Amino acid sequence: xMAIVTLLIAPLAFSNGPARAVPRSRVPFSVxxxxxxxxxxxxxxxxxxxxxxxxxxxxxxxxxxxxxxSISLATIRTGRANPAMxxxxxxxxxxxxxxxxxxASVGTPTAQQLVIDPYDKSAIKDIERAITESDLGxxxxxxxxxxxxxxxxxxxxxxxxxxxxxxxFGEDAKVALRNIRRDAMESIKKMEKxxxxxxxxxxxxxxxxxxxxxxxxxxxxxxxTVAVKEKEIMKV
Length: 236
What we know:
Helices cover 44% and strands 11% of the residues. It has a 4-stranded antiparallel beta sheet, covered by helices on one side. The protein folds into 2 domains: 24-75 and 156-234, Orthogonal Bundle (Topoisomerase I, Chain A, domain 4), CATH 1.10.132; 86-150, Gyrase A, domain 2. The chain is α+β, with helices and mostly antiparallel strands and 236 residues long. Helix 1 (51-74) runs antiparallel to helix 3 (156-193) and helix 3 runs antiparallel to helix 4 (201-234).
């Protein structure tokens, strides 16, 4: 069985816009768990949208965008052992690509070492090969029961590279916010023009203003989240 690693060349998980190819180093596997819906929740609801439902959808989707960003940033190395570092590794297991974290438990006995304990010991060689072929830059060592990974300290150039990657994740999250804002504004304007029970201009203006306030609030959270990770990476 040949093991390979994949970093999913796919749209970024929290993007709400059209599908676009993303460099493989920028698509962590784990963010799929926090995927943001491409369609507003009220778009598939039983009744027409209301100002309240639109605002709730905005808050929910933007919160999920922050959640997805946090998961993405967790996969970036900081020079210390962290099980999330392996979230981008998938192994070909019985003919299907399977996330490594679904095939084994991962521990951190020391700040510089990861220990991978496969549930199926016969898959150890496949897991080793997948790790070797990944972009982790670490060589696995196995005793037949567990796999050990020693986490080397980051060089200055590598730290800068990872810091740039953090900024890229942050920018993608901001694109998601803008797409959510666009959906909300379109819905509010449609309500304002509706033939039945049209939304008053003042109420429409207030609703749009609240959406913009939400964008500013979550944009600030993105900047703060990225800054914390960058500081963690650059700390020697």
